[in-house]
Amino acid sequence: MGCWGGALGIKIAERSVPTFEDVLASPGRSSSLSMGMFLMDASIEANYRIDVANEEEGRRGGFLVGLQVGYAFAPGETSWRLDEINGVAAGPQFQIEGLHVRVSLGGWGEEEPE
C-alpha cells in the first residue's frame, strides 16, 4: 500500500490583446484554479529474474521482468483554490482513481564470490 499526493491545475486566460487602459479598467483577465488531494494505492507486484551465468568470468547476471497491478484512489474531500489564495465554492467534485498496470524490464548482475 502506498500513499502520495496529487494535484490538478486549470489556467483560464483571455486571448485578446488589450490596451493598457483596458487592463487598468478590468484587471481580472486570467485565473488559475487548482486542487490537491491525498492519494492511496493498493497493488500487487511480481518480478521474475532470468539467470544467465557466465562461469568463465566468474560473474552472474541476466534479465528482470516485472508486472505490477493496482488501484489508486483519493479518499476524502477535495477543494478548489483560485490563484492559490481563495477557496472556490460549488466547484466540481473530482477524484483521481482507477486501475493501473506497470511493466518493468531491466537487467541485473553480480560477481560470484571466490
Question: What's the gyration radius in Å?
Answer: 25 Å
Estimate the helix proportion, in percent. Answer: under 10%
Number of strands: 6
Q: State the end-to-end CA separation.
A: 40 Å
> Unreliable runs, pLDDT <50, ≥5 residues?
none
Order of helices and strands: EHEEEEE
In total, how many domains does the architecture comprise? 1
How large a portion of the residues is in β-strands, by DSSP E?
A: over 45%
Write down the oligomeric state: single chain
Mean pLDDT: 83
The DSSP helix count reads 1
Give the overall shape, derived from the CA principal axes.
elongated
Content-based structural category = mainly beta
| Most strands sheet | 6 strands, antiparallel
In short:
The chain has 114 residues and is mainly β. It has one domain (2-111).
Describe this structure in words.
The radius of gyration is 25 Å and the shape is elongated. The chain is mainly β. It is built from one helix and six strands, in the order E-H-E-E-E-E-E.
Provide the fold topology.
Elements: E1 2-13, H1 20-25, E2 30-54, E3 59-73, E4 80-82, E5 86-87, E6 98-111
Task: Kindly list the characteristics that best describe this protein.
114 residues; mainly beta; six-stranded antiparallel beta sheet; 6 strands
